[in-house]
């Protein structure tokens, strides 16, 4: 993940008269080292090819400072103290926001020595700039440490020198800012400021609407998003051009999650390009949810009709999926003793009315063989089913619970309803589902418990069927599991 925020800032220059402590010996002390007379100084400056006019200026300055008197060099240390009074030019970076900085020093230069009585105006500059430049060091020339002791007046106004880019960069889990190809540490920016409050701390991801990425299949698959913006504002940091690279993303809402999930599931279905049974379809659903952990934040329960609607009746995949229900190839060679077809659009809404079709009284025992009773919604449906049937002695044969986040709630349902739960490996449980009432009525169904919707006061049913079989028609695996249950 990388973020680049870029804007231009101003380099400015200000001239002032005042006193500066450079925390170092004056360069003039080094120049006058081992010299005793004016003649020695002139000879040295001539050897440096300095013009006569410049030599005269230096001689006049040293005489003003009383370092040169009557042709002799005297009292050098007092004449050039660490704290120097003179005219200086001060360069600084000016940002339009306080973060990551308002001002930064670039450099300070000695212009010339002046008499203290020339400081006849108080410097009129904004207070926060004045507070900044006092006791600040250059970020570029760290050897030139200095402290501005006081500013008494200036020669002319501050002037703009040039603009340079300021870049705020997030890379390798840290923030830095960059000026003139040099990077400096900075405090971290809250990602909620960067992503306008849509940052998921738990999953370290940008929350996005599905409509943003609807046509970006690679982004949907990778859960990573990249983009550039010419104008982008960040609270407290100002306006930038911005470049986002490989930003981790997550659905913003449950609706976005479902649309995103169905889009990826649709790709899996199209890739197979064949008949898919409902069991296999549900396994594709579970595999996708497990392989994309960010979907696990949302309640995405398997729903056959929702998947069909993703394609529409004009698509061949609609009919390939529907054929898995119509034909049900796992048992199409068997003729059930009784076949009950349930369609919520045409049949009674209440689940109690459905059992009138089964021609059964309230059972004393209920055994359900279903490898997919693995999450909280299915256990809630199971509890409702047990209540409707008058609380029969209930046994379920299934695999281990997958919904680990809701494990405690599931265990409460099991305890509250005295459910006997027999855990088996998935492959040891028959592919289809069976509901057995009082050991003698064995119904095979195409649906797991999640076809029961608990969204309303009653339990609504989607399209499904229940087929009553005799023992002789049952798969030996079913008989073995029933024997274990009893």
Overview of the structural elements:
The protein is an alpha+beta fold. The chain has four domains: 2-162, no CATH class; 189-230 and 245-250, no CATH class; 255-326; 338-485, 2-Layer Sandwich (Endonuclease, Chain A), CATH 3.30.870. The protein is 30% helix and 30% strand. The protein is built from 16 helices and 22 strands. Strands 1, 4, 5, 6, 7, 8, 9, 10, 11, 12 and 13 form an eleven-stranded mixed sheet that branches. The longest helix is centred in the middle third of the chain and has 19 residues, at 254-272. It starts with a strand and ends with a helix.
Indicate the low-confidence ranges by residue numbers: 328-333, 344-350, 454-461
Helices, by number, come to 16
Strand content: 25-35%
Helix content: 25-40%
Radius of gyration, Cα only, in angstroms? 41 Å
What is the distance, rounded to the nearest whole angstrom, between the alpha carbons of the first and last residues? 56 Å
Could you give a short account of the major beta sheet? 11 strands, mixed
- The SS-based structural class is alpha+beta
The pLDDT mean sits at 80
Counting structural domains, the number is 4
User: Using DSSP, what is the number of strands?
Assistant: 22
Described by the principal axes of the CA atoms, the overall outline is rod-shaped
């Amino acid at each position: 993940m990388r973020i680049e925020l870029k804007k231009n800032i101003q380099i400015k220059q200000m001239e002032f008269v005042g006193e500066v402590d450079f925390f170092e010996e004056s360069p003039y002390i080094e120049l006058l080292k081992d010299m005793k007379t004016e003649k020695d100084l002139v000879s040295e400056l001539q050897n440096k090819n300095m013009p006569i006019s410049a030599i005269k200026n230096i001689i006049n300055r040293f005489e003003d400072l009383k370092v040169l008197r009557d042709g002799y060099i005297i009292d050098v240390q007092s004449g050039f103290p660490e704290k120097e009074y003179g005219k200086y030019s001060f360069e600084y970076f000016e940002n339009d926001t306080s973060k990551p900085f308002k001002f930064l020093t670039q450099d300070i230069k000695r212009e010339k020595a002046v008499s203290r009585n020339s400081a006849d105006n108080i410097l009129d500059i904004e207070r926060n700039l004045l507070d900044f430049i006092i006791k600040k060091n250059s970020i570029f020339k760290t050897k030139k440490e200095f402290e501005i002791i006081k500013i008494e007046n200036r020669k002319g106004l501050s002037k703009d020198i040039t603009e340079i880019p300021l870049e705020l960069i997030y890379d390798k889990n840290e923030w830095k800012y960059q000026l003139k190809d040099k990077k400096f540490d900075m405090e971290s920016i809250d990602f909620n400021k960067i992503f306008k409050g849509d940052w998921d701390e738990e999953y370290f991801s940008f929350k996005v609407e599905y409509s943003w990425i609807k046509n970006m299949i690679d982004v949907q698959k990778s859960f990573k998003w990249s983009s550039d913006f010419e104008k982008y504002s960040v609270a407290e940091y100002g306006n930038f051009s911005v470049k986002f690279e490989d930003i981790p993303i997550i659905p913003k809402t449950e609706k976005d999650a479902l649309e995103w999930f169905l889009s990826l599931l649709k790709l899996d279905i199209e890739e197979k390009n064949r008949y898919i049974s409902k069991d296999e379809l549900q396994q594709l659903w579970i595999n996708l949810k497990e392989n994309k952990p960010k979907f696990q934040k949302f309640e995405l329960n398997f729903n056959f009709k929702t998947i069909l609607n993703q394609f529409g009746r004009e698509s061949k995949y609609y009919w390939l999926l529907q054929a898995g229900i119509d034909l049900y190839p796992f048992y199409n060679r068997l003729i059930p003793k009784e076949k009950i077809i349930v369609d919520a659009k045409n049949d009674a809404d209440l689940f109690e009315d459905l059992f009138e079709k089964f021609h059964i009284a309230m059972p004393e025992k209920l055994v359900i063989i279903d490898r997919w009773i693995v999450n909280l919604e299915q256990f809630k449906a199971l509890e409702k089913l047990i209540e409707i049937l008058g609380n029969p002695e209930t046994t379920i044969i299934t695999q281990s619970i997958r919904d680990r986040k809701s494990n405690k709630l599931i265990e409460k349902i099991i305890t509250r309803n005295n459910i006997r739960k027999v855990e088996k490996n998935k492959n040891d449980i028959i592919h289809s589902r069976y509901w057995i009432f009082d050991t003698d009525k064995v119904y095979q169904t195409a649906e797991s418990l999640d076809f029961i919707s608990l969204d309303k006061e009653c339990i609504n049913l989607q399209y499904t069927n229940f087929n009553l079989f005799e023992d002789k028609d049952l798969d030996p695996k079913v008989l073995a599991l029933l024997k274990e249950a009893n």
